[in-house]
């Protein structure tokens, strides 16, 4: 089993915080494995909404959960209660609120979900102050090298050479643990088909009122084929035969289910910058046929993972955007730190390409500290990218090893 940097998250959280721990992320990214590993070190009780027997306990409310965990028994240490996929229950927020408010001093609660837990809810947030959210991502180059959480002040780390073939394996099989670890194309095909069926036949059915599942699948295929390109809502609407507003709503749903994510333009202090149309990328980049687009999507996922982890752990507010102006000058990504551009990233396949002048142009406008032209297939170089203040060509294996 591949060690994950998230394995230490529960112990660290409950050692410092009284709140519930919320862990969300795509299906089969490793949430349940991490939760069960946390339970191996202490008394643990596990309930999954998808298990009919467990569902009967959950539907009976907080008192039934307390009985299930035996909270009336004196213990030296708190037990751990893991609630998996509980967001599929319409009354999940009231259930968690009642349980935490009544029994929170006697039990630690870990809640996992394969949808964004802040989306499928009623208006308002009745759980405010009662939980801390964390987002789990697929494997990355940096995680394969160092499966440990960064310490405060350690946003980027020294470069380390990735395991032989690791980057190519990530490009071929994606970052979801099981197909990556198996490394077999036949198994990857079977896994991908099953995961797609679960998304469109179960998750959409359980969490939304959308009936046009076939058209949703077509939209998802269109997103995959145009990953990294400016979205054209009108063209999507014509292909799927729904309204533009429906396309926008459905894309938001696909985002909430961790199928794709939007990267929006950064326009502050950028002359004649685009302001509206986002670009979409897939959480599972291995589905993208074009090799160049797949490499760009892998880098997008690594940057989003870093931005989410740094933010979730309280190191600041980090965001992922892109730059494009009306003259069609573009840089693939800009990572922001506390609402200020920190570094720019342009992804290229080869290292034998001169630095794009657009990097320098946008670095001057944004005052970003660093500007990298990341070469997907260049050999590893044992040098710190983040010591360079001018636009620089860097190998993907070096740059990605310094993230998380």
Question: Would you write up a description of this structure?
Answer:
The strands form two sheets. A seven-stranded mixed beta sheet has the order 7-6-8-9-10-11-12, with helices on both faces. The chain has a five-stranded parallel beta sheet with strand order 2-3-4-1-5. The two termini are 19 Å apart. It has 404 residues and is α/β, with parallel strands linked by helices. The chain has 15 helices and twelve strands. The protein has two domains: 5-135, P-loop containing nucleotide triphosphate hydrolases (Rossmann fold, 3-Layer(aba) Sandwich), CATH 3.40.50.300; 141-219 and 255-401, no CATH class.
Instruction: Calculate Rg over CA atoms.
Output: 22 Å
Query: How many separate domains?
Result: 2
Q: Helical region count?
A: 15
Q: Looking at the chains present, what oligomeric state does this protein adopt?
A: single chain
Number of strands: 12
Shape: globular
Q: Which residue ranges are poorly predicted, with pLDDT under 50 across at least 5 consecutive positions?
A: none
Biggest sheet: strand arrangement: 7-6-8-9-10-11-12
Overall pLDDT: 94
The helix-strand sequence is HEHEHHEHEEHHHHHHHEEHEEEHEEH
Question: Considering DSSP H and I runs of 4 or more, what fraction of the residues is helical?
Answer: 25-40%
| N-to-C CA distance | 19 Å
Largest sheet: 7 strands, mixed
Structural class: alpha/beta
Beta content: 15-25%
């Amino acid at each position: 089993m591949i060690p994950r940097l998230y394995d230490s998250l529960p112990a660290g959280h409950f050692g410092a915080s009284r709140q519930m721990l919320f862990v969300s992320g795509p299906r089969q990214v490793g949430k349940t494995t991490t939760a069960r590993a946390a339970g191996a070190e202490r008394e643990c009780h596990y309930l999954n909404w998808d298990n009919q027997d467990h569902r009967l306990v959950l539907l009976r409310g907080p008192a039934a959960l307390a009985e299930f965990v035996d909270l009336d028994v004196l213990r030296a240490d708190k037990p751990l209660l893991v609630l998996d996929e509980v967001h599929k229950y319409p009354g999940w927020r009231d259930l968690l609120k009642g349980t935490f408010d009544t029994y929170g001093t006697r039990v630690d609660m870990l809640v996992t979900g394969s949808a964004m837990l802040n989306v499928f809810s009623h208006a308002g947030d009745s759980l405010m102050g009662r939980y801390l959210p964390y987002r789990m991502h697929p494997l990355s180059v940096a995680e394969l090298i160092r499966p440990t959480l960064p310490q405060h002040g350690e946003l980027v780390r020294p470069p380390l050479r990735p395991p032989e073939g690791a980057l190519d394996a990530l490009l071929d099989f994606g970052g979801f643990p099981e197909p990556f670890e198996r490394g077999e194309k036949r198994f990857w095909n079977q896994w991908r088909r099953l995961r797609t069926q679960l998304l469109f036949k179960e998750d959409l059915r359980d969490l939304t009122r959308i009936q046009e599942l076939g058209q949703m699948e077509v939209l998802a295929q269109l997103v995959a084929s145009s990953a990294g390109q400016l979205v054209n809502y009108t063209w999507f609407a014509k292909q799927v035969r729904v309204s533009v507003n429906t396309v926008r709503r459905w894309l938001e749903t696909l985002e909430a289910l961790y199928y794709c994510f939007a990267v929006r333009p950064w326009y502050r202090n950028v002359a004649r910058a685009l302001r509206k149309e986002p670009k979409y990328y897939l959480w599972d980049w291995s589905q993208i046929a074009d090799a160049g687009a797949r490499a760009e999507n892998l880098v997008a996922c690594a940057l989003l993972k870093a931005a989410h982890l740094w933010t979730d752990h309280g190191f600041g507010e980090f965001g992922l955007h892109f730059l494009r102006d009306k003259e069609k000058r573009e840089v693939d990504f800009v990572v922001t730190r506390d609402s200020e551009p920190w570094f720019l990233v342009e992804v290229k396949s080869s290292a034998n390409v001169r630095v794009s002048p657009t990097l320098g142009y946008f670095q001057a406008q944004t005052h970003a500290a660093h500007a990298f032209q990341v070469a997907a297939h260049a050999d590893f170089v044992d040098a710190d990218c983040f010591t360079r203040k001018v636009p620089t060509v860097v190998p993907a294996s070096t740059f990605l090893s310094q993230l998380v």
